[in-house]
Design goal:
five-stranded antiparallel β-sheet; alpha+beta
Length: about 220
């Protein structure tokens, strides 16, 4: 797992280093990688090749900062499976921060996907971790509990996350089955699922599949 730490450009570079290490498999690194270089205007150029990684499918909204300033201008964009950043001479740390933040945030679920992401709890755990920022987790989270029917109920808070405003079409299965019925729906800012005593695995699979597919398809709204 790529951990986000405090500490400026060195920590940003450490996170990019960790992402590179995760993707090295004896073959990938022979064709793809990371390039940090100076440019003659003068300034910096950073390229992270996302080809053949799960992040190649994740959208990125272009970021531009200080574009009228001759020295502190910068931009970061994604094109042809490459995350590319460029900026003036004092901007390398900020470019690395933007790029490593995006990689860290999106790789949490991507790692769950590659490591077992058929495992629903791994996906939900990674999604929860990606949203923890020192504040969000104090008010919101995930709850799994039993029902006296008997059965199970799962609630995933979507408030203040990228999934908050997305629509979800209710899913119902096995209405007539006492132990394997289930329903998943969105109630306000929560994704809520309930099921019979034998349907918890199926319930978690449906909820985690939606979370993962939506997360990976969305643009990075922090960059707007």
């Amino acid at each position: 797992m790529i951990e986000k730490e405090e500490g400026g450009d060195f920590q940003s570079l450490s996170r990019i280093q960790r992402w590179f290490e995760i993707n090295c498999d004896g073959d990938w690194e022979n064709n793809y990688g990371v390039l940090i270089d100076t440019v003659g205007n003068p300034g910096w150029s950073v390229e992270i090749d996302l080809s053949s990684t799960i992040l190649e499918r994740v959208e990125f909204t272009e970021i531009k900062e200080n574009y009228e300033d001759e020295t502190s201008w910068l931009f970061v964009k994604k094109a042809d499976n490459v995350l590319f950043g460029s900026g003036g001479t004092p901007t390398l740390d900020r470019i690395l921060e933007i790029m490593s933040d995006w990689v860290t945030e999106n790789a949490s679920l991507s790692e769950a996907k590659t490591a077992g992401s058929s495992e629903p709890l791994s996906i939900i755990q990674a999604w929860y971790e990606a949203n923890c920022d020192g504040e969000w987790e104090r008010e919101y989270g995930v709850e799994i509990k039993t029902l006296d029917s008997p059965g199970w109920k799962v609630e995933v808070d979507l408030a203040w996350t990228k999934l908050e405003d997305l629509e979800f079409k209710m899913i119902r299965e096995n209405d007539e089955q006492e132990s394997s019925w289930l329903v998943v729906e969105k109630e306000g800012d929560k994704l809520v699922g309930s099921c019979g005593i034998h349907a918890l695995d199926r319930l978690l699979a449906l909820m985690s599949d939606w979370i993962l597919s939506c997360w990976l398809a969305l643009p990075d709204d922090d960059s707007e």
